[in-house]
Design goal:
Layout: H1 18-30, H2 32-41, H3 50-64, H4 71-80, H5 89-97, H6 106-134, H7 140-155, H8 167-183, H9 196-202, E1 210-215, H10 221-234, E2 239-243, H11 248-259, H12 264-270, H13 277-288, E3 293-296, H14 303-317, E4 321-325, H15 338-356, E5 359-365, H16 369-375, H17 387-393, E6 396-401, H18 414-419, E7 428-435, E8 441-448, E9 453-455
Length: 469
């Protein structure tokens, strides 16, 4: 391995602001509001001067212990830990407290120290990275992912949502949450799904949940998931998608079929038989084009690439919902078994949902289709390909089932429709077979085949553009 180059050999001082460090410590000891901000925004590593680190640790320890923080208590704490003499004695603490008059500018000072600290960390990270990238024995992509994850951790220091919440804080939030739900009057608390029955059951998609949507090939997984993608986007909530199977134009065309009065065949095969339809199409285009939807259709995506791109998409566009189509299509690295790949992908999806505080939904294929066809078995989570690997990580698992898709008509199999709770207003069902924070349930829907669109129920009159067939 190439020998690391020490920054000190360059004759350049690491980024630092000693006078600002003194100002922050002084503000923390003379004002309780300054104390709170200093403890909230900084840690001892943010101080370059080793003596200042020791003083900060003492101040932070007193604060977290519920003790009064001032000149006397800090000196007493340092005396007990046998560090007072090493930092310059009580005279040094007195000088620091006298260096500032108030804590009015402490947030700005803390920001300066954070930037200096991050610069030092980045210099160290890059120095380590240079030597490691010269080492041919280390996998390049694994090293890039490691470097990016380290940078992301540093970047998260500026995100207040990343701060640690105590058990006490979490418990105290419960009454506030219950009061909010009580006064909410049935409104959803999460992201809109676009379907009333789904919204009601889940109260919208909940952040940090990893949701799996499964179904047979051609049954409508992509169509339903595109509806789920469009619902928050119509509310101007940014959403993202990794399409490992279909291109961006194909996804956009399906979205147009779902949102407009046009048939999918008109948009993909036959075109229009009346010129005036083009004006109507352009009206829809002008609406859909402004939706905050960001799609990456890179084929053969690896799990590590997905994680990196998801973080980037969230950082750039602030996405709140991420759709992955579909989970079995992630590319293996080397000669990994598919079971390991699907397991890694599932865990990565859950981790990304939690890390970025977003909803992640992944589509999944099912297996044993013949069993479902021949014995009228209602599909369950074990029908998913690599079910055990997926079930372990998922918060919610839903399966699409349309009896008519398999030739099971209501007149011939009335009990099947009854068991599925499919009324005459519906022809399909969304089976919630796992819900970590709620009940399992059958949610009946109506599927309009020529538009490949799932709806709450069959409308009395469905206005559509005249079909070209």
């Amino acid at each position: 391995m190439v020998e690391k180059q020490n920054i000190s050999n360059l004759g350049v001082k690491p980024p630092q602001a000693i006078d600002v460090e003194e100002a922050v410590l002084g503000a923390m000891m003379i004002d309780t509001s300054g104390l709170g901000k200093g403890v909230e925004l900084l840690n001892d590593d943010c101080f370059y001067d080793l003596k200042h680190r020791i003083i900060y640790k003492a101040v932070a320890w007193l604060s977290k212990s519920g003790e009064v923080v001032d000149l006397l208590t800090v000196c007493d704490r340092l005396e007990k830990t046998k560090q007072l003499e090493g930092i310059g004695g009580a005279a040094r603490i007195i000088a620091i407290t006298q260096s500032v008059a108030s804590s009015a500018h402490i947030e700005e000072w803390c920001r300066i120290l954070l930037q200096k600290y991050l610069r030092r960390k980045m210099i160290s990270l890059c120095t380590d990275g240079i030597s490691e990238f010269y080492d041919e024995s280390i996998d390049t992509f694994a090293l890039m992912e490691l470097m990016l994850s380290k940078v992301e951790k540093l970047n998260s220091m500026f995100d207040s949502q990343q701060s640690i919440e105590t058990w006490c804080d979490a418990v105290l939030e419960i009454p506030k949450r219950v009061e909010f739900l009580t006064n909410n009057k049935g409104k959803i608390t999460g992201l809109p799904t676009g379907l009333k029955s789904v919204d009601k059951h889940f109260s919208g998609w909940q952040k940090q949940d990893f949701i799996v949507l499964g179904g047979d090939s051609g049954i409508g997984k992509t169509s339903l998931s595109v509806s789920f993608l469009l619902a928050p986007a119509k509310k101007n909530i940014p959403v993202g998608m990794f399409s490992l199977e279909m291109g961006v134009r194909q996804i956009a065309t399906r979205g147009m079929a779902v949102e407009s009065q046009f048939h999918l065949n008109q948009l993909t095969k036959t075109g229009f038989n009346k010129q005036e339809y083009f004006a109507m199409l352009m009206e829809e285009v002008n609406t859909l084009k402004d939706y905050p939807i960001y799609i990456d259709d890179t084929p053969a995506l690896t799990v590590d690439q997905m994680k990196r791109k998801a973080r980037e998409m969230h950082r750039k566009h602030k996405i709140q919902f991420l759709l992955i189509d579909f989970i079995q299509m992630f590319e293996s690295v080397g000669k990994e078994n598919i079971r390991i790949t699907v397991g890694d992908a599932s865990r990565a999806c859950k981790n990304i949902a939690k890390e970025l505080n977003i909803v992640v939904m992944a589509l999944s294929q099912v297996t044993r289709t013949e069993l479902v066809k021949s014995r009228f078995n209602i599909p369950n989570k074990h029908h998913l390909k690599e079910a055990s690997a997926i079930e372990e990580a998922a918060d919610v698992i839903m399966l699409i089932y349309r009896p008519g898709f398999y030739g099971h008509q209501r007149e011939q199999q009335p009990k099947l429709y009854e068991d599925l709770a499919i009324s005459k207003k519906h022809n399909s069902v969304l089976l919630v077979v796992k819900h970590r924070n709620g009940r399992r349930r059958k949610l009946p829907l109506f599927f309009k085949e020529d538009k490949t669109k799932f709806m709450n129920e069959k409308p009395e009159e469905l206005t559509t553009i005249e079909a070209p067939f």
